[in-house]
């Protein structure tokens, strides 16, 4: 027992000494930034409560704008010029865009997040509730927790004298959870910012796998599709005859079965979310509800289905689309079918530049005495705004909080993750800001 106790004490002391040695790798200014994050932890949690308690479901345009105003009040004292960009053209609230000029010739950093949540005003899940170092609340992790991490990191940089030279642009969209249409307008400001930037940092949630923080260097696309089939209607006793053929629902079943058999490939997922068929069938204007009428003794005249598919590159997107079109075109007897694609979020492939940024983040982890972050499997992450700039700038994802149950009542944020994520972000941004532009 004494030997076991000695071993435990030696291990703890060794860990403390190693942590101290790691901290010594930080510059004095970086250590001040770390200390500021710790000193302001409760302030950060208070800010998170304030923004979470303000509903900002995507379609609550006034609520999204109010959260934008709260963030503006945090950024302007740090020296940011803040603009609110209304988006009446897309029937969404708008975006917050902030600019900190920094030192000429330094790398320009683009920080990305979003103000809206999936929880609209009629959701019963509305309030922030804390229990120790965790809290529940709508958007507490996705993405209001990420915004708080961003602000905590920037305040720490300011307090440590690391912000003045930093060239930073921030784009917080107001419709990430349900992007407005047309996307070219809804994401025009973000795309333009990506073309100006040298590095993009996405402050959506940190992925944690088996207790280990993961780095994210890729996001898959999100593409929609609507499939409509038609057939000759008549008495059910005539189905499959030369005169009447297979009917619309059987044609729909053929196509969906062929999708399942022929489409699978690495990094692809696809899904049918809603389907209806009968003598009459239609989707509503939002594409989220379907209605149908029919009888068992009538050959169905029409069927409709809507779904999505997700890919890791634009090449894969185009290849999958072509496969789907070929399957749809191979009509069963007496039927017809058409497929229409809906552009959503593009893919962010795992490039060498993104991997190099993760290496930079892991240098920060080493110097802070934190474990190295391995690259997350992109199948474990959904689509996001950073993908709109991925073709123009290297980027990292997941600089926000660790959370669980996102997009569902009970969404829970790990409040302790605000500390380590804000420290990582502050040091990474400060170091990147000292580097000259690559181009």
What does this structure look like?
With 439 residues, the chain is of the alpha+beta class. The protein has two domains: 17-219 and 348-433, Zn peptidases (Aminopeptidase, 3-Layer(aba) Sandwich); 222-345, Alpha-Beta Plaits, CATH 3.30.70.360. It contains eleven helices and 18 strands. It has helices at 2-24, 28-39, 41-53, 61-75, 144-159, 183-186, 188-196, 248-262, 314-329, 352-368, 416-433, and strands at 81-87, 92-100, 108-114, 129-131, 134-136, 167-173, 199-202, 207-209, 212-214, 222-231, 269-278, 280-283, 290-293, 302-310, 335-345, 394-396, 403-404, 412-414. The strands form five sheets. A six-stranded mixed beta sheet has the order 1-2-6-3-7-16, sandwiched between helices. Strand 17 and strand 18 (412-414) form a beta hairpin. Helix 8 (248-262) packs antiparallel against helix 9 (314-329). The longest helix is centred in the first third of the chain and has 23 residues, at 2-24. The chain is elongated, with a radius of gyration of 25 Å.
């Amino acid at each position: 027992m004494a030997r076991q106790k000695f071993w435990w004490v030696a291990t703890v002391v060794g860990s403390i000494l190693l942590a101290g040695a790691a901290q010594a790798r930080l510059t004095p200014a970086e250590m001040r930034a770390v200390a500021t994050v710790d000193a302001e932890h409760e302030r950060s949690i208070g800010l998170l409560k304030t923004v979470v308690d303000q509903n900002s479901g995507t379609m609550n345009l006034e609520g999204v704008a109010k959260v934008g105003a709260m963030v503006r009040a945090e950024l302007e004292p740090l020296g940011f010029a803040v603009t609110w960009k209304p988006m009446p053209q897309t029937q969404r609230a708008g975006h917050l865009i902030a600019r900190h000029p920094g030192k000429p010739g330094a790398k320009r950093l683009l920080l990305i997040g979003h103000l809206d949540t999936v929880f609209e005003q009629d959701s019963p899940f509305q309030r922030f509730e804390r229990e120790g170092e965790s809290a529940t609340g709508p958007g507490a992790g996705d993405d209001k927790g990420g915004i708080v991490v961003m602000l905590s990191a920037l305040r720490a940089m300011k307090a440590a004298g690391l912000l003045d030279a930093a060239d930073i642009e921030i784009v917080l969209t107001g419709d990430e959870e349900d992007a407005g249409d047309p996307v070219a307008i809804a994401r025009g400001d973000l795309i333009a910012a990506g073309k100006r930037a040298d590095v993009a940092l996405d402050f959506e949630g940190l992925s944690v796998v088996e207790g280990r923080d993961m780095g994210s260097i890729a996001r898959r696309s999100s593409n929609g599709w609507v499939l409509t089939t038609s057939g000759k209607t008549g008495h059910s006793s005539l189905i499959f005859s030369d005169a009447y053929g297979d009917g619309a629902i059987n044609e729909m079943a053929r196509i969906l079965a062929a999708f399942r058999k022929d489409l699978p490939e690495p990094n692809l997922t696809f899904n049918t979310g809603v389907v209806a068929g009968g003598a009459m069938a239609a989707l509503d204007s939002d594409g989220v509800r379907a209605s149908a009428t029919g009888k068992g003794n009538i050959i169905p005249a029409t069927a409709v289905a809507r779904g999505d598919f997700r890919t890791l590159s634009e090449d894969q997107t185009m290849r999958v689309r072509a496969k789907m079109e070929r399957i749809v075109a191979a009509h069963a007897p007496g039927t017809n079918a058409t497929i229409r694609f809906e552009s959503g979020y593009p893919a962010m492939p795992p490039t060498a530049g993104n991997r190099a940024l993760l290496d930079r983040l892991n240098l920060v982890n080493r110097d802070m005495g934190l474990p190295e972050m391995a690259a997350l499997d992109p199948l474990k992450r959904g689509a996001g705004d950073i993908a709109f700039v991925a073709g123009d700038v290297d980027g990292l994802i997941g600089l926000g909080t660790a959370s669980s149950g996102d997009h569902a009542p009970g969404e829970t944020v790990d409040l302790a993750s605000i500390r380590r994520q804000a420290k990582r972000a502050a040091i990474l941004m400060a170091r990147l800001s000292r580097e000259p532009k690559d181009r």
